[in-house]
Predict the structure.
Amino acid sequence: MTMLDLAQKRRSCYELTDKIPLSQEELIHLVQEAVKQAPSAFNSQSARVVILLGEKHHHFWHLVSEELKKIVPPERFAPTAQKISSFAAGYGTLLFFEDWAAVEALQVRFAAYAENFPTWAYQANGMLEYIIWTALAERNIGASLQHYNPLVDHAVAHAFDVPHTWKLIAQMPFGAIAQPPQEKEHMPLALRVRVEK
C-alpha cells in the first residue's frame, strides 16, 4: 500500500474488541519504532508514550468514567458510559505525553525561539500519534484519538506513576474493529487547497 492508501485506511474506529493480529511484543515494537522515527523540532524527542494493556487498560477507562461522573448529570450519563465501554472493550490504550522539562530546556537553550517550542511540541506529538494510528490501521487494528485531559490528568499521574513534568496530550484506545467506521464527508478541496502559480 502507498502512504496515501494508508491515509485513506486510517479512520476513527469506536467499536473495538480485544483481539488483534499482533503479539504483545510486536505491538510494543511498533510503538517503540514509531517513537524512535517520529520527527521533532531540534530533535527534541520530547514525546512520551505509556502503553496500557490488560488490567491497566481497563483501569484507565474506569478512571475516566469516575471523573466524568463528577461532571455529567446522572440522567445523561448512559451515552457517556456506553462510549467509555466501547473503548474499554479494546485491546489497549496508548497515553501520549510531552515531557515539559525537555520543552523548557529548549526554550532556555534557544531563547530566540522560546515561544515556538510549545507549539512545535504539540505538532511533533500529533505526528507521532498519526504514525502510530496509521501503522495500526495498516495491520487492520482500529483506533481513535480521545482527549479526556485535563479532566483525568491527576488521576492518571497518580495511577500510573507518571513524572510530574509529563503533560498528557491524548489517549488512543485500540483493538480489533468490531464495526467499520461510517462514511466520511469531505469539504470541496477547492475550499481547502489553493495553488498559486
User: Anything to note?
Assistant: Residues 80 and 124 are 30 Å apart (CA to CA).
